[in-house]
Write a structure and sequence with these properties.
By secondary structure, the protein is an alpha/beta fold.
């Protein structure tokens, strides 16, 4: 391409390229006028065969240009820095398979970006870009960071992801703070060595996946404070050794799953200070070191099957944590109760741990046949399944008082008048209540009438109390 074939704006850019000088076309005529128009073919010729000067670093730096025609750099090797900021592209730049040094499109307007399998030795910056079509970066390798902060990305076809980052490898951070998307972000199998920053982002795709990130691998943290997400966030199988920070976030997908983090391995999951999640929370088979969740944020439906965690914060009474387990619509899951019990015991709150175990037995009772439910209610009423042993003492003392008063007013006749010991109504009642201990009273006297019926009631009640106490103590000992 000869310089005489170029427009004045293109000539300025051609001369500046060799030294890496910046060409600012802002303020030169109308936004789409000839003074600011640069053909994409000229940019391609510069990047592939542009002029060079000894001792200078060639670079393409242009601001405020209207880029016409397709910028086709597919499978090209570009060693120059590219900065095209505040530019407007009429057609989608095609960078698939290209090898680039540094690419900056900050504050530009594009109809899309096709850069699958691109290799960038530096960073890719799309800060504050307005993109009216899908951004395809699947399989890209970026040695620096990827910036889509405060960008706005939409696509005409809702079935296509607006931001395709599947299998992308980023050696630094993915900065998407303040990002606004209308459609799905796809991060399946992506590897981010640094932080994934979604703070203040607004992601919209109602009734479908708004963020699909299965098997995502993040090196440090996933930051999403004040995130606004309408649609389903799918993090199944993701690995985040740091924290997944959802403080002040608002997650909404009514009638379906709002957040799915099943089979994830997470250092810390923070769910606090935000509005209640609208939709289901799925943490099945996840491994979380610290689960930091406020009960107020939990939705009406949760899935906790095989969820494991070491610490549960902030510290809340058991009565506020138990509804989380009872909202699991998949039925009785003893593992969930054991996890919560262990969390309370780890911080020394044995009273809360006992309440959780009591709730576990009551929930289990609903799964038993009728005779199991009857026996369970007896154990619950008598000693609280062994977790309220003082209740047995209250029962014994009450029955002892009733029997002692009844038999004090009417001494049962002795079986052998000459051999019977002196009658003692208190020890006679104890003989009836305690099936193992004998004070020699029961075998020496034989009540009649309703007093005999009372003795039968006391004997049966004593056996029930003794059996439930033994069962409760055995359960407690075996658990410890």
């Amino acid at each position: 391409m000869e310089i005489n074939d170029l427009t004045p704006a293109e000539q300025r850019l051609w001369r500046a390229f060799a030294t890496g000088a910046t060409v600012d076309l802002r303020g030169h005529g109308e936004e789409d006028g000839p003074e600011r128009t640069v053909r994409a073919a000229v940019l391609r010729a510069l990047l592939l065969n542009g002029p060079r000067e000894a001792g200078e670093i060639a670079a393409l730096k242009i601001l405020g240009a209207l880029i016409t025609g397709p910028l086709d750099l597919r499978y090209a090797s570009i060693d120059s820095v590219v900065r095209m900021m505040y530019c407007r592209f009429e057609e989608v730049p095609r960078l698939s398979g290209a090898q680039l040094n540094y690419f900056n499109l900050r504050d530009s307007v594009l109809p899309g970006l096709a850069a699958a399998r691109t290799r960038i030795d530096g960073s890719l910056r799309l800060t504050r870009c307005r993109i009216g079509g899908p951004v395809r970066l699947g399989g890209a390798q970026i040695s620096g960071a990827l910036f889509v902060d405060q960008a706005e990305i939409t696509a005409a076809d809702p079935a296509q992801p607006v931001l395709q980052l599947n299998q992308v490898a980023i050696d630094d951070d993915l900065c998407a703070r303040g990002l606004r998307t209308h459609g799905m972000i796809r991060l399946d199998g992506a590897t981010i060595a640094g932080t994934l920053d979604l703070e203040d982002a607004q992601l919209t795709n109602p009734g479908a996946n708004v963020l699909q990130a299965e098997a995502l691998d993040v090196g440090t943290n996933l930051l999403a404070r004040r995130l606004r997400a309408q649609g389903r966030i799918d993090l199944r199988g993701a690995r985040v050794p740091g924290r997944v920070d959802l403080l002040d976030a608002r997650l909404s997908n009514p009638g379906a799953t709002a957040l799915r983090a099943g089979s994830c391995v997470i250092g810390e999951l923070w769910l606090r200070r935000g509005a209640p999640i609208e939709g289901m929370l799925n943490l099945r088979r996840a491994e979380i070191n610290q689960l930091d969740v406020e009960p107020e944020m939990l939705p009406q439906q949760v899935r906790l099957l095989d969820l494991t965690y070491t610490f549960l914060t902030p510290h809340e009474p058991a009565e506020r944590r138990l509804p989380m387990l009872e909202r699991d619509g998949e039925g009785f899951d003893p593992h969930a109760y054991e996890q919560l019990t262990a969390a309370y015991r780890r911080i020394g709150d044995d009273q809360a741990a006992r309440l959780v175990q009591l709730a576990k037995q009551r929930r289990r009772r609903s799964t038993l046949p009728w005779y199991g439910k009857v026996w369970g209610r007896l154990q619950d009423g008598a000693v609280g399944y062994g977790f309220r042993p003082l209740r047995a003492a209250v029962w014994l003392l009450s029955l002892l008082a009733v029997g002692s008063i009844a038999y004090a007013g009417h001494h049962p006749p002795a079986l052998k008048a000459g051999e019977a010991p002196h009658f003692n109504p208190v020890f006679y009642t104890l003989d009836l209540l305690l099936p193992v201990i004998s004070f020699g009273q029961e075998g020496a006297f034989a009540p009649t009438g309703w007093y005999q019926t009372l003795s039968y009631v006391l004997i049966v009640t004593g056996w029930i109390l003794a059996t439930t106490v033994v069962a409760g103590v055995t359960r407690t000992v075996s658990r410890q």
